[in-house]
Amino acid sequence: MLKIIKGFSITTLTVLAFSQSSMAREFADIYTECGLGAMIAPTNSVVAAVTNVTFDLGTTAIISNISSPETCKGGQERVAAFIYQSYSALEKDLASGSGTYLDSLMTLAGYDSQAQQEVEMLRSGFAKIVANPSYVDQNRFEKAEALYNLVINV
How confident is the model at residue 57 (pLDDT cuts 50, 70, 90)? Predict the structure, then answer.
């Protein structure tokens, strides 16, 4: 088993060495912004790095950096975690059209803080989500997922 892990690690590091996109990113960034660690602790870089090293010696972080570096920029995982953790406050802010949680969501999603057009598009899309008869039967995860899909597609 140890030989397999060593072989896999050597192969991964070799691929990493020849990958242009991964050369631009520091190892510290890879371990904090990619892999299992970024999914489990998107807002705590220390926990993210420790998680990546503990669970699989950082292989998922390195592989996700090579295969899909755009998902490792810290955006998507952080946006998803933020939406899930603060869904009820986001619901209120989207209903009113302003608020600190909505401002934070816009910043995390990469929008300008004055992106009023995007806010209006989010509000309109969210109104359609809430108007769906199945909305009241959805759990928090399903509601957060619908809002996340809306945010990344605006």
Answer: confident
At which residue do the structure tokens 């669970």 appear? 55
Local structure of 143: helix, strand or coil:
helix
pLDDT digits (tens, 9 = 90+) for 3-17: 777 656 666 555 555
Say whether 97 sits in a helix, a strand or coil.
Answer: coil
The residue assigned the tokens 């969501």 is: 105
Question: H or E segment at 113?
Answer: none
Instruction: Compare 40 and 96 and report the one with higher pLDDT.
Output: 96
CA distance 87 to 120: 18
DSSP per residue, 13-82? HHHHHH-HHHHTS-HHHHHHHSHHHHHH-TT-HHHHHHHHHHHHTTHHHHHHHHH-GGGGSSHHHHHHHH
Is residue 19 over pLDDT 60? no
Residue with the larger pLDDT of the pair 100 and 28: 100
> DSSP character for 137?
G
56-80 burial by CB neighbour count: b if 16+ within 10 A, else e? Answer: bebbbbbbbbbeebeebebbbbbbb
For tokens 């955006």, what's the residue? Answer: 75
